[in-house]
Each structure stands twice: as C-alpha cells, then as structure tokens.
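Quick look at the format.
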Amino acid sequence: MKVKGILFGGVFAVTLVVASLAILPVNDAHAPLLPVEHFETYLVTAEITSGAGVTLEDQFGISEHIVNRLEQFAIPVQKNDEPLDNTTSHLSFWTITDPTFIAREVVVDNQFGEQSLKVFDGIYLAAPALKNDEGRTELPTDLSHFKCYKVQGVAPGNKVTITGQFGTHTTTVLQPGLLCVPAKKTTDKGVVYPVVNPMEHLLCYKIEVVGTGQTVLIRDQFSTSQTPLSFMDLLCVPSMKNPPVPTEQSSWGKMKSIYR
C-alpha cells in the first residue's frame, strides 16, 4: 500500500493507493507513484492504426471499444516554473468507437478554479507511452489509462509559460476540449490494466497553435512507430472532478511539493 497526500485549500487529504489483484502486464509493478503531470498534446500526422478491442471501465460506466487511430501524443511539461517530477511517462491518444453516451454535467476543479462542464461522447483512449525510450525498457506503470470525453466549458483565458522537451513558449489557455478520466482497461485477451489513482483527472484546454516538426519514436501497448508530430493542440491540466474539498487557485502547484 502506498500513501499519497494532497493539499487542497489547507486540507490534507490522504489517498490510499492499494496494490491491485488484477493482472499486471509489465515487470515494473512496484515503480514509485508520482503525481500526474501537466501534458501538452501534439497532432500526429502519420496514419498509425490499431484495430484492437478493449473494455474500459470508468466512473461513467463500462463500455467496449475498437481502438482506431493514433491522433495525438502528449509530453509532460512544466507550467510557470512549477515542479516537473516525471519526465519520461507520456500518453498516446487513440481514437475509439463509443457506444451511445448520455450527455451530463460535472464540476471540475484545478488551478484555474472551479468549472462547470457539459460532457459528451468519449473519443479517445489515452494510453501510457514512451518517447524515444529515454532509458526505460518497460512501459509506464505510474500512469493510469484515461478515457477522454468531449466537453464544453468557459475559457479561463490565463497566460501561461510552458517548458517541455521541444522548447519554451507562452500561450493563452482557451476553451476546455477534453475531460480525461482514469479508466481500467481490459484487452480482448483478458489482460487488465488497473487504475493507478482514481482521483487524478486531466482537463485538456485548447491553446494557441505552435508548430514543432519533430519526429519521435512512440511506443505503447498498441504500436511502436517513428511518428512525425505537427502542431501542439491541447494543454492537459491535473484536475479533480466533483472535488470533495475546496481548492484554491494556487493549491495544485503547492500539491506537488508534498511528493518531493
């Protein structure tokens, strides 16, 4: 059992992360857990497809999907000089088929404040991935899979400075586009990837477009491919859905210092 503490508005909430009895498909099952990072997504220009069948279970229910095309790739980034602890765990965003989903409203809280969102169909499976391997041999076990739903909400409008593996730039945080919720994934062969931390969500906002022109080696459970990346698309911010305690705007940056 691993205990993680999170500070929200002066309240120290303790999350117990219990070792799952589900099948772990990697060898590094005891890797230390780090807080989920900010991510910046880039559009993939190559045609990389899967066709794998998966079952996803999240807080909205259980559904079966076909994994279609790799469309975005997310790299961990530093925002406004906040700590960046985990630089090697990435996320690959695969389009998925989605059964009928009833739109609903949720409240999400993060460093930009409390936001009401309307949630629509799930359109991506975000899978833990590696970029250029970067000294790691096993796929990340410190990140959950996420099912990402289309959302509508109000743009925060904040200016932020983002530093990542492709450079530093300042951008405006625009409308939210995706809410990514942790999901248990079961493959069509019965292999189970459990949720790492059920509290950690990502709310992904549109940002001003900047090109990259990078080509990287992406490796995840569906593919290993040299992949050209074009324009950055989203900034994904650590968030809580329907949070149980108040959150101050500055609390998320402070939260990471607890882990250090």
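Next, a different chain entirely:
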Amino acid sequence: MERTPEMTKHRLLRYRRTLLSISVLLIGISVIAASPPAATLTGKVVSIADGDTLTLLVDKTQIKVRLEGIDTPERAQPFGRKAGQALANKVFGKVVQVDDLESLGVSRQQLVDHAVRICRSILEERPGGEGTSSYGGSLTPDSRTTPTSTRLEGLLAALTFLPSDEVELRQEMETAIHEGIAFLVRAQVRSGELDGAIPRAVGLSRPRGSRRLPLVDPRASEVRIDYVQHALSAMIRYLEVLGPGGDGKQ
C-alpha cells in the first residue's frame, strides 16, 4: 500500500510525540539516578561499620545505611580496615544526605537499565543525513531544533551515570551528541536583526532509509525565545560533560 503525504505526516507527528516523551522520561530518570530522589535522609554519621556501611543519626534515631553501587571488603578481610578508615575520613561526624532508593520501589540498577534502553531507542530512531549537510546531526526526522536539544540534554545526562562497560553505547552516544551540537550551531542565525537566534527547524530531512521527498515545514524559519533557551541549555551541558576538561561523568 502506497503511503500518501497525509499518512506520512501523521506518522511523523506520532513519531515526534513518542520521541519527546522518551526525552522527557530520560531526563527524569537521570535526575532520579544521579540526584537525590524524593525520599532523602539527613543526619549525622555516628558510626562506620566498614567501607560501604555506616550509621546515620536522624532525629535521635540511628539508621544503618548500606551504600549503593560499591562493595568493599568486610572489616576482618584484607584491606577491610583501610576501606572503613577511608570512608570514615570522608564522612564520620559530618551531617550528610542519603538517598533512600528502596522507598522508590525500584532499584537504581533497574532505572539505569531502563535509561540504557531509552538511549538505544533515541539512537536507533534518529534520522539519517551527512554531518556536513544543513540538517545532519538532527535527532528528529523533521530537523527541529528544540526536540533535538532536549534529546541532547537527555543523552548528556545519561552519560554521567551509565555504566563504563557500556563502551559501544557510550561511544555512539558521544558521536550523536557531537553531531547534534554541530547541527544546533549551524542552525543559529548569523546576521541581521535576529543574529544569534535559533529557528524552529533547519533544512529538510527524511527518516533513515526513506526514498520519499521530505515534508516541508512552513514554520521552519520561526524564531522564539524558548528555541534559544533549549539550544543554549544543551550547549552548556555539552561543555560541562564533553567540553575541555569534561570526562563524561560530571
């Protein structure tokens, strides 16, 4: 069955809404996985059991806390005392905040695994296009700048907590991010009274593998302040994570 322009447009609109939801969810997951969630305990560290277990005094109640993501030797095992001393040097006697991941009903690993799937989905569904073309690097089939910016923010956030053993995924993400930022830079208006502005869309593109002519966006040249805000946010985060001195873990 041959697709009509109306069918193609409907598919792109549905595709756009899906990717936008993915991007928002990815940023939300990065906040949960890398920042304090809603349930946060604040108290004074009054005891160190070993390198990964401490006791927190919260409102006159002592709470034993097992640190997530690390597993040090027990105190009686080789280097166990050194591990405990290292943790004590950092936090003993200090007031700290501890994220209670169990209260979320889901583990950090489950959240990270979900983020990995979302990142793969964004990468698999991004459109084709040479990096030197006007729309190369866009993360949406209609070459829109703001959805690309939000996806870039999500990918950059994910880089800060995805496992280091996800080597191929991280490399593909970094490539997409570099190309996406270059796309936003090329999109920027360079002259006239709107110098420095970011338009709604750039050039024309088509979904990867499609031989049909791309749809024309009559609002492509539209300029709004939120387009600029999203692009700048992505660029600033890019410099923090992958710019000079960045290591992808900030």
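The first helix runs from residue 5 to 34.

See the schema section for token definitions.
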